[in-house]
Design goal:
Thrombin, subunit H; 3 domains; 7-stranded antiparallel beta sheet; 6-stranded antiparallel β-barrel; 13 strands
Length: 301
């Protein structure tokens, strides 16, 4: 039996220059990989840096945008306030202009037409079941002053404003010593302003507005004849005027050239001409505030 033949193994010897080529290629590959890694790392760093810069720029832009928006909002609010202030100033200037124009009308040729035109809208007719008289509005929300004797003995009363409308009336209170009653009607109205009766001068021109003998919203003109006259109550609180006063004028305003109330027409001396008397405006204010504080817990004027 013959022995099995052994496999023949061929040993291939890599030549030296082949080894060098393979080593060089491997080294180049490794170097390329390293360079590629370094490049990728550098590029990643650049991208990261750019991203951070972009985030910072966006954040700064947001901050600047918010700041600009806040400034714009503040500017809009300021502009709106300035517009409102300007409108208020224009309205005030228009009011002052109208007042000055009326004063000019009244002072030139003793023309009270402008004063009467503005004032008469705040005068009211008071009708009770026993008499008819006058009152005038002293607040925009409808508080009215008249003489207390106008309401004396009355069980029913109504008020007619200049526009011809009739209103139910509430009696707030009265001061019998100064002959002042405070009334109230609902609604919003133009009011008359009380002047300082300490500044009233003898000889200055005045008008009285009222309802003499049932003639509604009539005006009569005169001058101040005297001040601090004694009234039927024994008090020296009255302005004497030669402006015509007749039954129905009681409770109406005595108005100066500035359109301010300097007195409330109260009484006249019977048998004499041009002898009318009006309670001075400072005492009207005192009486009204006493009545309102007692009944409303507040001063009205």
């Amino acid at each position: 039996m013959q022995p099995k033949s052994q496999p023949i193994i061929h040993h291939i010897e890599i030549k030296r220059h082949h080894k060098w080529i393979i080593g060089s290629v491997s080294s180049l590959v490794i170097i390329a990989l390293i360079l590629n890694s370094v490049l990728l790392y550098f590029l990643y760093g650049q991208v990261e840096l750019s991203y951070d810069e972009l985030k910072s720029s966006i954040k700064q832009l947001q901050t600047e945008t918010n700041s600009k928006f806040t400034e714009l909002t503040d500017s809009v609010i300021t502009t709106k306030q300035e517009i409102l202030s300007l409108q208020t100033n224009i309205s005030s200037l228009q009011t002052n202009f109208n007042q000055e124009l009326n004063l000019l009308k009244a002072s030139v040729g003793t023309d009270f037409s402008g004063v009467i035109e503005n004032s008469i809208k705040s005068v009211v007719t008071i009708r009770t079941d026993v008499s008819q008289a006058t009152g005038f509005i002293i607040t925009k929300d409808g508080y009215i002053v008249t003489n207390a004797h106008v309401m004396e003995g009355a069980s029913a009363a109504g008020i007619f404003t200049y526009d011809g409308k009739q209103h139910s009336v509430e009696l707030i209170g009265y001061d019998t010593n100064l002959d002042i009653a405070l009334l109230k009607i609902s609604g919003t109205y133009e009011k008359l302003t009380l002047g300082n009766s300490n500044n009233v001068q003898i000889g200055e021109e005045v008008i009285a507005i009222g309802n003499p003998l049932g003639l509604q919203f009539s005006a009569s003109q005169g001058i101040v004849s005297a001040v601090n006259r004694e009234g039927t109550n024994g008090l020296n609180y009255y302005i004497q005027t030669d402006a015509a006063l007749n039954p129905g004028n009681s409770g109406g305003p005595l108005i100066n050239k500035e359109g301010k109330v300097i007195g409330i027409n109260n009484f006249k001396i019977g048998g004499g001409e041009s002898l009318g008397f009006a309670l001075e405006s400072n005492y009207i204010k005192e009486a009204v505030n006493n009545i309102s504080q007692q009944n409303l817990n507040q001063a009205l004027i």
